[in-house]
Write a structure and sequence with these properties.
mainly alpha, Hypothetical protein af1432, 65% helix, globular
Length: 191
């Protein structure tokens, strides 16, 4: 079986019954979208598979050992680097860890994280276009904290290099936190 198909099956089973934050959208749409972004950007099958699996260890009963056994050390390493290490820590501690880690992370991890954050930002933008500032009530941390986090993630990802997914992410972060917020009367229009 192809590694991407195997990853899709594993992620689908692992995320079964989960939904995107405060929506009725099945969670699996997110890792599939991340994998599709990576595939479209020309990354290898292993990186695409890691993108599909990126939230399994963080949000499901699967362990890094399970991923390594089924997919090998390279994919497990990318999944580990794309996951928050300890969900029991406070939000700010987890986000600061991510920001610092990404400054020196491998290109493979940086690609997966860029696709992950890009899909998240685009989802927030779509919801912002529908419900405006109410979108921020879905998150444990509000708009200003989200702006701080995403802006710093973009900076950290750009420390060593730049690539197309990162450029897209930077544009979308600017669009959400700068352009759209300035003109709430024009729903979804970037100015």
């Amino acid at each position: 079986m192809d590694v991407i198909e195997k990853a899709l099956q594993t992620a689908s089973k692992s995320h079964e019954g989960q939904y995107r934050k405060n929506t009725d959208i099945p969670y699996i749409t997110h890792p599939v979208a991340v994998g599709m972004m990576l595939l479209k950007a020309g990354y290898s099958d292993e990186i695409v598979a890691a993108g599909v699996l990126h939230d399994t260890v963080e949000d499901t009963p699967l362990t890094l050992e399970d991923i390594e056994k089924e997919f090998g050390a390279k994919i497990a390493n990318i999944v580990e680097g794309s996951s928050e290490p300890d969900k029991s820590l406070p939000w700010i501690d987890r986000k600061e860890h991510t920001i610092n880690f990404l400054k020196t992370a491998s290109e493979d991890i940086r690609a997966v994280v860029s696709a992950d954050k890009l899909h998240n930002i685009r989802s927030i933008i779509r919801d912002y276009e529908k419900i405006g500032e109410e979108v921020w009530k879905r998150f444990n941390a509000g708009k200003e904290q989200q702006k701080w986090y995403y802006t710093n993630v973009v900076e950290s990802l750009g420390t060593q290099s730049t690539f197309d997914l990162l450029k897209e992410l930077r544009n979308e972060v600017d669009r959400l936190f700068e352009g759209m917020s300035k003109d709430e009367g024009i729903q979804g229009k970037y100015i």
